[in-house]
Amino acid sequence: MVVEREKLTQGGKANRQGKVLERTIVPTFESYGFQVIPFREWSQHQARFGDELLLKNVPYTTIYGHPGYTEFLLKSRRHNLEIRIECKWQQSAGSVDEKLPYLYLNCLEAIPEKEIIIVTGGGGMKKGAIPWLKRSAENRLYVKETSSCKVIKVMLLEEFLLWVNNTFS
User: Fold this and answer.
1) Which end of the chain is less enclosed by CB atoms within 10 A, N or C?
2) Which residues 6+ apart lie within 8 Å of 147 measured at CB?
3) Does the predicted model carry a pTM greater than 0.85?
4) Residues with Cβ < 8 Å from 133, sequence gap 6 or more?
């Protein structure tokens, strides 16, 4: 029996492809013993969970003043880490790369954690988009004194997996 592939809109296809990145990150942390829990569940019953966590769908208030979410918040007592993790995947022409300056400013101004990792992948972003984001983070562009203690790292998926392996092995 041949199953006809579901026809998706361009946005639906992009969302499905973007989930691949998130679904790669979850088992990576599970393999190092992290519990993966929706933030909402954890925030209501923190005593039920351990100290090595990967929280999913973590809220914050954006620079526009409305609710925003990032994919993950890594909490590790053992490694003394609390890192917000944002994933951006663009496999073909689209608008994800146009949102990178907004994401970067949210990292500086709105996301409360002092350490943030932006994981990118897909190979479809406009030429110059990822280099601009990496250069902005490395050179601390647009950093005000109030956000000067923040560390923002931009990693391709492969770099991120290496970082996870080196950090938690």
Assistant:
1) N
2) 108, 109
3) yes
4) 100, 103, 104, 118, 120, 154
